[in-house]
Model the fold of this input.
Amino acid sequence: MRTTNDQLINELLNIVEASTATVNKFKTLSANELNYKKDSASWSVLECIEHLNLYGDFYLPEIEKRIALKKTAPASGLFKPGLIGNYFANLMKAGPGKMKKMRSPGDKDPAGSQLTAATLDRFLKQQVLLTSLLNKARETDLVRTKASISLTRFMKLRLGDTFRFFVYHIERHVAQAGNVIAGIR
Done:
């Protein structure tokens, strides 16, 4: 996959916009619908969104810091993913059909949390910041600027790959939350 920085950012902004619109629709649901779980091993809508909030708590400040220390985008404006970053991003990408289940790290697993609709508001605020950061990143070299990942601060990915992983992860779990609602209607 080789693309321009602008094409990549526009693709990611479209996903963020769609995810934001979906979560805004969740705000019309009752507390029972937002907390409904098919079984004890599954997540509710609010748990799916809180999981994203927990990741946002790490990635948004990290991305913001890296953009502040940015390397200026090259004249070519081309983005080429790194080998590991591309693997992680594609692992998160929501595709047609059933998504592969993955275990969440314990500090990012909201199962059993007492959550309210405020979880949705927190997510929507994070989406506003993410949109702003994506737009600021248009002037940033998405290949030479690196960002830490949540698994270990010793490994850094290209900023473009970090954005891809983070936004695809959001898309994946918003779709998961949508599937919870589809299962009760």
